[in-house]
Give the backbone structure.
Amino acid sequence: MRRRVVTPLCFVGLAAAGCASPPSPLSPPPPPPHGPAPHGHSHHGQGLHKRFDGAEGWTKVFDAPERDEWQKPDTVLDALELTPKSLVADVGAGTGYFSVRLARRVPEGKVFAIDVEADMVRYLAERAKREALPGIVAIQAAPHDPKIPEAVDVILVVDTLHHIDARDAYFAKLRERLRPGGRVAIVDFAKGATMGPPPEHRLAAEEVVATAARAGLTKVREVALPQQYVLVFAVAPTQQQGPK
């Protein structure tokens, strides 16, 4: 059986953008095929891969002001229990919707803004400079490896996990990059959401918890958003160890 080929990062726009070409910076984004929510980068079909070049155009989708109404970024960030010196990895950063907010929460720390798309990484670096956020470090990842360069306190994965086939292996990579006491936060669309990917591609919160447990992570917090769940994980007490 042929496996689905996916790119598991830069996922904050697919539900708003579908599989169309990136919009021109001078034109509005295309209509959403699954509802009004930006959510993803790759696809939900077999053997397909859509590029998200033209980051300046996609920022109209990824950073649309109305996203705040359902994404509740402050609620998400509050759940992370950040300190001013926290080291954070934003996996699937896109154009930086969460990265810039994270950087303002950790002014003495660092935010690794991670994406597989070279143009998004370029845009992230330029945005960080433009908005005077030197704590943001833009990093290009591989499809099945986030390439977090050093151990961090928090790994944030938003609207991304449901795209990844080998989730057990991916969770293991995330766990390896945690500092002692570090946490992984997963934000994704609930089964009953009225926007986002098709229902058959969504992951129930219970499924995510079970996958994390197989990687030695245990749920320590859960927060309900209007359309999504926030699941925060820590290394299980019986498996505490430092990063590899």
In short: Confidence is low (pLDDT under 50) at residues 1-50.
